[in-house]
User: Which sequence fits this backbone?
């Protein structure tokens, strides 16, 4: 009898506890067409302007719940999304966006130019605790941090119900603006925020079950673990070909396994796969496709304070056999570079790469009077092998390096505060010439700890001021030549993405997904 | 007995403060803050970072921050997650259930297997049971959980296609018990095997020690049957060390298993703690620390009470004070 009671109690407890994990209103229908989506890192707040990390993983979620102005393809071309078209105005100081009249918030309210204007005004209000407000710093009437200046109008205007005009501090083409900022501008349901003071914006219950105007609607969430979205059948670009998108956080190493086992239909970002895993995926009946544009930029960050002599920094570059490092790291799916500017950029001015030359490196070190200082090289655990190879190559040229494996936050914090002398980092590039450089050579964000930024600032300003075309290419060439001479950081290579194609979902634009863009309204679950 | 419990509870208070202060200080010493995470994307401004640090009070001195955190705690507020902006208690409430299911099932299975196996191994030395218990211990101690997880996924999910490789429920399903059980088998097996070795070893050792006692010899001399000696005397006499081992697994059940939860995409406390540490979400880390610390205290108290129930000598000794 006792055993039966205990068994019944255990069963009841298990049922009760299993209920704990199923939150978020009524359970989904058994017949729902579900796309099972894996992601290796959790998003943070569901409010797009309150993301501490500002990571691509959070952006992938915002991209589905909220609408953006345009869709940016992997090759840098643009397609309409919240805006049907756009044009330059006021001699390049403004861009006029013609919004899609069919766009609706998930509660049925239309998305108007006023919604966009109210969103931007609220987020630039100094009283609103917006994170990532610097994205608005390009607009006129804002300070360097993107906050509205007292007594000035922020450069946003609803000219008509569906015509939005943004005005910038500097002349900016629509294409440059969208390539740079599209993934940071989202329209919020300001009609639900009318009675809320700007300072209380982030405390609204709305962000626990957000109402956006994107291709998916919020359904339920287990914070940091899973998120269930339903398809927005009224999305103005078309209804997604599924009923439900079930997003689950999983270990990065389990994503491909889960896809092969049939537990996932797709995983972010873009079904990314390493060259080593390609045979496994193909043997399991999956197709693997190569990206159409580089989606990773690798660099060796340098501390210009502790490695203050440019000759030593150049010697470090010459001591590295980038071809070998790139081959080891990308298995042939990378291109060595001496610049952060993508070859597909219209202002590309050459690769500015210095060929591997350990003898020249040794000569430069001797000239600079290098006394055998041991430099601290920080890397994350997945790049230990790469760091060891670099250590060996630098050692052959006479440069002493100690490798320290840390998590990425520690590495970036350590580079910023001068703890480390070098760090291996990678980034998602864009087709703009200054996508990498502009934000790294300012007083506020001087991660390379450059003592005198003037040389960089003037050359970066020259690129920004130059008209698109030959003049800008020339300005980029001058900037890159200066970088090659000073080498405040060492560009290593551009990596081409490999994407494992889903066997159960069609219509996925894999290369564009690498850039935090997912065309979910075109996805169809087979 | 009540006085004893009260005294134990009073000793818990300074220990609790010590643990929270220790964790709080160490978190503050760790390099980087959540504001530094913003630097990873490169496109940040000092204003954004400064705004976040100001909002989270990271510019305040450490003692001020700790006192403020304690003040909120005593008012039943674990604070808000720095990462999600939502209550820490909500995050923990969502994760405790899945952790209890996974680690609780794994540990319960381990206990159910380990006690009979350990007793039989001690009862019949060098028998097949003894060899089996040694083999279980070797696998349990020698094979790391992550490797075991990968092997099980490879065999049962990828090769045989019998069981799901990840998650707690099939997506799109209504979350039935059957679905939960199917998803539970592989991760719970890993947790079970990881705990089995220690439990078997402790049970076997405790039984062997008891079997050498005079009262067991007396029981044999009185002509009791083997089964009676085993169940009434050996097992009962070995109960305290076995219970100690079993109960010390309870905090582990609440705290979850980081590796297993991460590999199987299980939404438990272990993966919550892992994510919180990586994202420098110290409000959440402190919240989980409080829950685990309280569980350890409760377990220790329970352990003392159970000792009294299991062993009359302990009970009488206490009553005699």
Assistant:
């Amino acid at each position: 009898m006792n055993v039966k009671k205990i068994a019944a109690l255990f069963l009841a407890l298990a049922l009760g506890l299993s209920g704990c994990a199923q939150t978020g209103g009524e359970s989904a229908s058994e017949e729902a067409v579900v796309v099972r989506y894996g992601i290796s890192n959790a998003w943070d707040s569901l409010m797009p302007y309150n993301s501490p990390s500002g990571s691509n993983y959070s952006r992938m979620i915002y991209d589905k719940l909220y609408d953006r102005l345009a869709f940016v393809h992997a090759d840098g071309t643009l397609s309409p999304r919240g805006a049907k078209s756009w044009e330059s105005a006021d001699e390049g100081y403004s861009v006029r966006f013609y919004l899609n009249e069919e766009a609706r918030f998930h509660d049925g309210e239309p998305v108007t130019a006023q919604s966009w204007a109210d969103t931007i005004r609220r987020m630039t209000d100094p009283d609103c605790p917006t994170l990532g407000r610097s994205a608005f710093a390009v607009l006129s009437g804002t300070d360097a941090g993107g906050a509205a200046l007292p007594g000035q109008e922020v450069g946003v205007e609803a000219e008509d119900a569906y015509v939005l005009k943004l005005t910038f501090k500097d002349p900016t083409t629509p294409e440059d603006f969208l390539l740079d900022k599209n993934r940071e501008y989202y329209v919020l349901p300001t009609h639900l925020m009318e009675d809320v003071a700007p300072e209380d914006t982030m405390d609204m219950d709305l962000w626990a079950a957000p109402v956006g105007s994107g291709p998916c609607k919020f359904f339920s969430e287990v914070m940091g673990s899973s998120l269930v979205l339903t398809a927005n059948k009224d999305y103005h670009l078309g209804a997604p070909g599924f009923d439900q998108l079930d997003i689950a956080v999983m270990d990065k190493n389990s994503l491909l396994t889960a896809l092969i086992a049939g537990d996932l239909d797709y995983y972010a970002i873009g079904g990314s796969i390493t060259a080593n895993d390609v045979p496994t995926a193909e043997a399991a009946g999956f197709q693997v496709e190569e990206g159409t544009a580089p989606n990773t930029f690798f660099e060796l960050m340098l501390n210009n304070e502790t490695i203050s002599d440019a000759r030593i920094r150049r010697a470090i570059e010459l001591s590295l056999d980038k071809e070998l490092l790139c081959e080891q790291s990308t298995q042939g799916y990378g291109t060595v570079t001496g610049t952060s500017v993508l070859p597909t950029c219209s202002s590309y001015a050459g690769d500015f790469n210095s060929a591997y030359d350990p003898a020249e490196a040794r000569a430069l070190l001797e000239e600079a009077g290098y006394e055998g200082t041991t430099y601290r090289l920080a890397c994350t655990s997945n790049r230990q092998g790469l760091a060891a190879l670099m250590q060996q190559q630098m050692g052959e040229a006479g440069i002493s390096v100690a490798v320290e494996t840390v998590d990425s936050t520690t590495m970036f914090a350590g580079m910023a505060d001068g703890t480390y002398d070098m760090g291996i980092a990678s980034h998602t590039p864009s087709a703009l010439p200054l996508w990498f450089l502009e934000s790294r050579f300012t007083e506020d964000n001087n991660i390379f700890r450059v003592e005198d930024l003037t040389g960089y600032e003037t050359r970066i300003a020259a690129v920004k001021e130059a008209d698109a075309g030959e003049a800008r290419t020339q300005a980029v060439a001058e900037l890159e030549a200066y970088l090659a001479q000073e080498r405040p950081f060492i560009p290593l290579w551009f990596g081409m993405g490999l994407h494992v194609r889903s066997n159960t979902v069609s219509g996925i634009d894999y290369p564009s997904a690498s850039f935090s863009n997912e065309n979910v309204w075109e996805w169809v679950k087979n | 007995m009540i006085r004893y419990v009260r005294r134990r509870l009073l000793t818990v208070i300074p220990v609790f403060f010590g643990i929270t202060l220790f964790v709080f200080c160490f978190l503050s010493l760790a390099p980087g803050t959540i504001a530094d995470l913003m630097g990873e994307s490169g496109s940040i401004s000092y204003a954004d970072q400064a705004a976040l640090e100001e909002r989270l009070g990271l510019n305040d001195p450490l003692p001020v921050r700790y006192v403020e955190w304690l003040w909120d705690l005593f008012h039943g507020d674990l604070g808000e997650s720095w990462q999600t902006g939502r209550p820490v208690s909500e995050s923990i409430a969502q994760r405790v259930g899945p952790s209890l299911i996974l680690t609780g099932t794994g540990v319960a299975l381990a206990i159910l297997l380990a006690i009979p196996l350990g007793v039989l191994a001690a009862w019949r030395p060098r028998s097949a049971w003894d060899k089996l218990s040694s083999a279980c211990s070797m696998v349990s101690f020698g094979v790391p959980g992550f490797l075991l997880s990968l092997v099980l996924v490879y065999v049962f999910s990828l090769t045989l296609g019998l069981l799901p490789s990840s998650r707690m429920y099939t997506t799109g399903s209504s979350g039935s018990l059957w679905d939960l059980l199917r998803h539970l088998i592989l991760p719970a097996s890993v947790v079970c095997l990881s705990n089995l070795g220690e439990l078997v070893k402790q049970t076997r050792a405790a039984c062997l020690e008891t079997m050498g006692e005079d009262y067991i010899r007396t029981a044999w001399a009185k002509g009791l049957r083997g089964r009676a000696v085993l169940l009434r005397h050996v097992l009962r006499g070995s109960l305290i060390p076995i219970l100690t081992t079993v109960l010390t697994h309870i905090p582990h059940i609440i705290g979850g298993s980081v590796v297993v939860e991460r590999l199987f995409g299980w939404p438990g406390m272990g993966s919550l703690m892992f994510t919180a540490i990586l994202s420098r979400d110290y409000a959440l880390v402190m919240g989980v620390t409080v829950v685990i610390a309280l569980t350890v205290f409760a377990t220790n108290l329970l352990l003392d009470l159970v000792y009294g129930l299991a062993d009359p000598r302990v009970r009488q000794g206490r009553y005699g004070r």
The two ends of chain B are 10 Å apart (CA to CA). Chain B touches chain A through 68 residues (CB under 8 Å). Chain B has a mean pLDDT of 85.
